[in-house]
Design goal:
Shape: globular
Family: Belongs to the TrkH potassium transport family.
Strand content: under 5%
Number of strands: 2
Protein name: Trk system potassium uptake protein
GO molecular function: metal ion binding; potassium:chloride symporter activity
Main location: membrane
Structural class: mainly alpha
InterPro entries: Cat_transpt (IPR003445), TrkH (IPR004772)
Distance between the termini: 15 Å
Radius of gyration: 22 Å
Oligomer: single chain
Strand order of the largest sheet: 1-2
Helix content: 55-70%
């Protein structure tokens, strides 16, 4: 009963956040054209009333949050808000599976869609889709920082899941940290929108795409995504803000506080991430130029934009991925498993884990050649402890097993391997676009497949352990 009250209390500020940042903007747009949809108004009023009731009844009630409470509240909070977020889609005429899929895809910043004709949606519903991603991008960080550290031993859990945040980059006071994150997130959103507008987008386009850019979401208001603009300048701006959002936010805070680039230069994960981006984009350009025989300018545009967008799990496209041959789309889909940096809004396994695995591999090769050699593996100048190595190996192993499980489930639904692999990669890594059957959208999926992939999106956003813990009986007993 106490845990349920804790959940109800947490839903108070969560629903207010959702109502203010996601429901209010499209509701305001509708008010200007005198076509207020009752569903938006109903959700806004309900969230407002609920938040006030929680403020009156439970706000000052003292609760002691345990680690179990943190994981339970985080997971079920995502599920509850996803169901709530699906209502505008459902009442606009979409079926329940499509509505859930679209809402979860937005909130988890995945960017996959079942909608084949975005022009049929009203502007208020389009901006609502974009805001789902913006709120989901900042919301996860705030939830992780505000809930899990509040629990007993939660700081250790937070450090395990967001290694690389850097201890000195954030205030020890959680409320102050959350406000700082929100201000920074809002600031780069405004800068991104202004940059898009100066580059040629209109106000609505610039604001809409800034929401999905800084959240690394991938939603667009056009069916042909960023290909609609056909502008290298706009694509360059998108790449800049994608890389900012894919980098550890802790490094950004340290740079803004100390005005020193050394925090980027000395961070092993950031250097590995940039090296991976550089190598992948170079290879992509060469493959498109010589193997696919695409023109020089198109090879550079497609190779750089598509590769960075996919590896960072953003999911923006300027052309259908299947138009780039077979080798390259599969390769960058595999690289999407690496994902963005820790402490960012990106998905995937995270660059720091892959970096550690590579270091361990080279260390073992050295030991085979020189059995008596004594070596120490360091990351960001600190020795990697055995428990950290075990944590990385267990996470990656479980990540691969979960991927295979979802792949088999989709193939049982008569989906070919190529399409099923791309769908699992796109949803579990919170990426978005798929290949083969899903190169345009996911509308051809049966309802069971859409619910399956919706679960994959949530699991990927919670970094797997947050979900798997709920399946162990011992977790519920103690």
């Amino acid at each position: 009963m106490i845990s349920f009250l804790k959940f109800l209390r947490f839903l108070g500020p969560l629903t207010l956040f959702f109502a203010t940042f996601v429901i209010l903007p499209p509701l305001t747009m509708q008010a200007f054209v005198s076509e207020v949809e009752i569903i938006f108004l109903s959700i806004f009023i309900s969230c407002l009333i609920y938040g006030i009731l929680i403020e009156i009844t439970l706000r000052r009630k003292k609760f002691i949050y345990t680690p179990r409470d943190g994981f339970l509240i985080t997971f079920f909070g995502w599920v509850f808000i996803s169901i709530l977020a699906s209502l505008p889609f459902f009442f606009s005429g979409m079926n329940y599976a499509d509505s859930i899929f679209e809402a979860v895809s937005g909130l988890t910043t995945t960017g996959s869609t079942t909608i084949s004709n975005l022009s049929s949606l009203s502007e208020s519903l389009l901006i609502y889709r974009q805001l789902l991603q913006w709120a989901g991008g900042v919301g996860l960080i705030i939830v992780v920082l505000a809930i899990i550290p509040a629990a007993s031993g939660g700081i250790r859990i937070l450090q395990a899941e967001t290694s690389g945040f850097a201890e000195n980059s954030f205030s020890p006071r959680l409320k102050k940290t959350a406000r700082s994150l929100l201000r920074f997130y809002l600031g780069i959103t405004i800068l991104c929108a202004i940059s898009y507008w100066l580059a040629g987008m209109n106000y609505f386009e610039a604001i809409s795409h800034s929401f999905s850019t800084v959240s690394i979401g991938g939603f667009s208001i056009y069916d042909d995504n960023f290909g609609h603009f056909n502008s290298p300048l706009i694509e360059g701006i998108a790449i800049l803000f994608i890389l900012i959002s894919a980098t550890n936010f802790g490094l950004h805070f340290l740079f803004l506080l100390k005005k020193d680039f050394k925090f980027y230069v000395k961070n092993d994960e950031f250097k590995f991430f940039l090296l991976l981006i550089l190598a992948a984009t170079t290879f992509s350009v060469l493959v498109l130029l010589f193997n696919e025989e695409i023109g020089l300018s198109e090879s550079f545009r497609y190779g750089i934009f598509q590769t960075i967008s996919i590896i960072t799990t953003t999911g923006f496209t300027i052309t259908n991925l299947d138009n780039m041959g077979i080798l390259l789309p599969v390769l960058i889909m595999l690289l999407a498993f690496v994902g963005a940096c820790s402490g960012s809004v990106g998905g995937g396994i995270k660059a720091w884990r892959i970096n550690i695995l590579i270091r361990l591999a080279f260390d073992n090769i050295t030991k085979i050649m020189h059995p008596t050699a004594v070596s120490t593996i360091k990351f960001n100048g600190e020795k990697i402890e055995q428990k950290q190595i075990e944590s990385v190996f267990s996470f990656v192993a479980i990540y691969v097993l979960i991927s295979i499980l979802f792949l088999l489930v989709l193939m049982l639904q008569n989906i070919d391997f190529y399409s099923a692999f791309s769908a699992v990669s796109a949803t579990l890594n919170n990426l978005g676009p798929g290949l083969g059957q899903f190169s345009d959208n996911y509308s051809s999926l049966e309802p069971a497949g859409k619910i399956t992939l919706s679960l994959a999106m949530i699991i990927g956003r919670l970094e797997i352990f947050g979900f798997l813990l709920l399946l162990f009986p011992s977790f519920w007993r103690n």
